[in-house]
TrEMBL record, chains A, B, C:
Name of the protein described by the UniProt record: 5-carboxymethyl-2-hydroxymuconate isomerase
Residue ranges that the Swiss-Prot or TrEMBL entry lists as coiled coil: none
Organism: Marilutibacter maris
Molecular function GO terms recorded: 5-carboxymethyl-2-hydroxymuconate delta-isomerase activity
Keywords: Isomerase
Cross-referenced Gene3D superfamilies: Macrophage Migration Inhibitory Factor (3.30.429.10)
Cross-referenced SUPFAM superfamilies: Tautomerase/MIF
Length: 124, 124, 124
């Protein structure tokens, strides 16, 4: 926790890199809500997509931040806006209709489990 | 909003195309719930999968529709059924045990953010 | 239902196989909560990722189990822990900072739809 997933259609540049993810992670760090090493982000390219029913040039970048439940609505809104602002700076496209969006979802805290894997051979 | 994600195992044909996604988007449009340009759909092929613990020929197509919260249960059910019906028409497979499923999930409206990206060089 | 999604960064071995997924499915079967053929699992490799803002060797494996709503918190916690224990046995990595995590999320039961696809040509 938190888990950040960035989906981006293949007509958007600048977002599918480790560097871009680190910039997003820095934006999350700046919120003061998370420990540095806990922020786990991935970029997922979307090759097959459709926006609406027209064939016009369109695309999207969608950020989904999943955090343990219990945070206040205003904190979630601030996290979402910080991600969107970072995406505005990172993303490049010649396509006129690229939608950028950010959502924040809750992870059920009571059933969340986590551990650090020890290197080497598994015990079984 | 809405976001539609179609996962399909690689023993199912007909679904991993822009054309198939547009057909699904048309089904969503027909519901009267969404603006045309807001419907953002992607198809995600699943190469490594397991259904249960048997090695028998199986597979699945899973539609996940994420919409802003606040819609009535009967509307969600109708959206789910419309997607499933469209999938029944679109998908082809020689495998006897393909499961088709559709779920509708809520996006937290209060923290959802969205903008349209302006083409060209980012400002920073 | 249930749907299990395993994301793994590409510095983790042992998890991106049908055999590994079957082992996880067996752990879910052992809970007594699910019918064998209903357990649908996929492994998704993550090529572009960042953990925090450091460049140190890190990575993660994230299990997300989505089940129909209504199960008790202690059942969800047990499912999460069973998945984490199975991941500990399955995953291998030379990287010292691999985080393993498991979450359980609810699927809205009222709007979930499912059918079995009939082989052959679709009716339309």
């Amino acid at each position: 926790m938190p888990h950040l997933t960035i989906e981006y259609t293949d007509n958007v540049q600048g977002i599918g890199t480790v560097s871009a993810l680190r910039t997003l992670n820095e934006a999350l760090m700046a919120s003061g809500q998370f420990r540095e090493a806990d922020i786990k982000s991935r970029a997922v390219p979307i090759g097959t997509f459709a926006v609406g029913t027209q064939t016009a040039g369109r695309g999207f970048v969608h950020a989904r931040l999943a955090i343990l439940d219990g945070r206040a609505p205003e904190i979630k809104k601030a996290l979402s806006e910080a991600l969107l602002e970072a995406l505005r700076c990172i993303c490049r496209s010649d396509c006129p209709g690229i939608q950028l969006c950010a959502e924040v979802s809750d992870i059920d805290r009571a059933s969340y489990s986590k551990t650090i894997h020890e290197p080497g051979t598994p015990s079984t």
